[in-house]
């Protein structure tokens, strides 16, 4: 009875796209941040926590401002938070900073020339301190985007050791992302590089044909301009009839994620309401700033449950049997005689 019910449902929902579904089956068979505590490589907590994790500033050439940082000593003894500035670039995928380790690198987007008051910070056991770092844009700063990490590493004070095992993990560091925009002749231009569909939540197993409902999609955006871009928009999931069954807002968090200039970033989000076999289409309508164009992209995929090929074979066998039976009855009807 259960198989008969599935057969009936499959025939009903697939009566129009049956031809396309058969093609799909053929292809399948042939293809056979508020606060951060640093963690050492071993997983032990380091000696510092920092907040906020991100700062965004807009400075005209020569203009001054400040960056606020809160550090807390979470070790068992007094420390000095040793400061450093790290340059990074995009990894063109996750949005996580990819540190530039070459000491000879001259990164034109570095914030080093903007930070005029960096210094180490001494913290007693359990002490939390909030302080400001002066920032000033160079008078000759070109319009565009500048970014970097302000990093602090916990170093035990000479006059006070750390108790117990709290020294474990002090090689790790905490950092704050800093994004500075110098206004002027800034080009804003983005494109939808690709739309992906994944079997898993992490976005590692891409496909076009799925035997179980896909879990996530990924929208790859490329920033072709010289400023920071914050893409946003509506992503719609439609069934084979063009009816929307699911939707979400791209990059819709309180603090939207950035795409660095001349780089790409993949935005992964969950999909839902994929229940019936058939063809589905993701429709993306994305913008990236005031007055920007609306970018549109589409991606089609198929959901074909593992049991469906067997059901289709049964249906085709039943149809073939019915055709043979009808032909035999027709030949045996009035007006048809057999001669020996």
Rounded to an integer in angstroms, the radius of gyration calculated over CA atoms is 30 Å
User: What is the CATH C-level name of the largest domain?
Assistant: Mainly Beta
Task: Give the assembly state of these chains.
Answer: single chain
The helix fraction, in percent, is 10-25%
The low-confidence parts are 1-35, 39-45, 160-169
CATH architectural type of the largest domain: Sandwich
Let me know the largest β-sheet. 5 strands, mixed
Task: Enumerate how many helices there are, as a single number.
Answer: 3
- Strand numbers in spatial order across the main sheet: 3-11-10-5-8
According to CATH, the fold-level topology of the largest domain is Immunoglobulin-like
Shape: elongated
- Structural class designation: mainly beta
Proportion of strand residues: 35-45%
CATH superfamily of the largest domain: Immunoglobulins
Number of domains: 2
| Mean pLDDT over the full residue set | 83
3D architecture notes:
This protein is mostly beta strands and 340 residues long. The protein is 15% helix and 40% strand. The chain contains 3 helices and 19 strands. The strands form 5 sheets. It has a 5-stranded mixed β-sheet with strand order 3-11-10-5-8, with no helix packed on it. Helix 1 packs across helix 3. The longest helix has 24 residues, at 308-331. It is elongated. The two termini are 46 Å apart.
């Amino acid at each position: 009875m259960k198989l008969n019910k599935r057969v009936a449902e499959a025939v009903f929902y697939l009566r129009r796209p049956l031809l396309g579904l058969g093609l799909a089956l053929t292809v399948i068979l042939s293809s056979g941040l508020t606060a951060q505590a640093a963690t050492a490589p071993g997983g032990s907590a380091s000696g510092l926590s920092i907040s906020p994790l991100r700062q965004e500033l807009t400075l005209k050439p020569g203009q001054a401002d400040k960056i606020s940082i809160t550090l807390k000593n979470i070790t068992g003894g007094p420390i000095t938070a040793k400061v450093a500035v790290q340059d990074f670039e995009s990894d063109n995928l996750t949005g996580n900073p990819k540190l530039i380790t070459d000491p000879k690198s001259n990164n034109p987007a570095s914030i080093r020339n903007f930070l005029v008051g960096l210094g180490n910070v001494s913290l007693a056991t359990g002490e939390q301190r909030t302080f400001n770092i002066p920032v000033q844009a160079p008078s000759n700063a070109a319009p565009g985007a500048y970014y970097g990490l302000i990093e602090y590493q916990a170093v035990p004070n000479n006059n006070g050791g750390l108790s117990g095992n709290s020294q474990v993990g002090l090689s790790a560091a905490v950092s704050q992302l800093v994004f500075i925009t110098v206004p002027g002749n800034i080009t804003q231009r983005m494109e939808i590089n690709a739309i992906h569909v994944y079997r898993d939540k992490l976005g590692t197993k891409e496909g076009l044909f799925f035997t179980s409902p896909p879990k996530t999609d990924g929208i790859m955006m490329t920033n072709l301009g010289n400023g920071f871009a914050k893409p946003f928009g509506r992503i719609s999931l439609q069934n084979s009839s063009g009816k929307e069954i699911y939707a979400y807002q791209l990059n819709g968090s309180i603090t939207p994620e950035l795409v660095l200039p001349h780089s790409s970033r993949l935005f992964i989000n969950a999909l839902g309401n994929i229940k019936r076999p058939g063809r589905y289409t993701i429709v993306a309508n994305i913008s990236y700033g005031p007055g920007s164009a609306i970018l549109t992209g589409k991606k089609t995929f198929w959901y074909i449950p593992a049991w469906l090929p067997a059901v289709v074979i049964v249906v085709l066998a039943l149809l073939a049997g019915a055709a043979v039976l009808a032909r035999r009855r027709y030949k045996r009807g009035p007006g048809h005689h057999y001669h020996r």
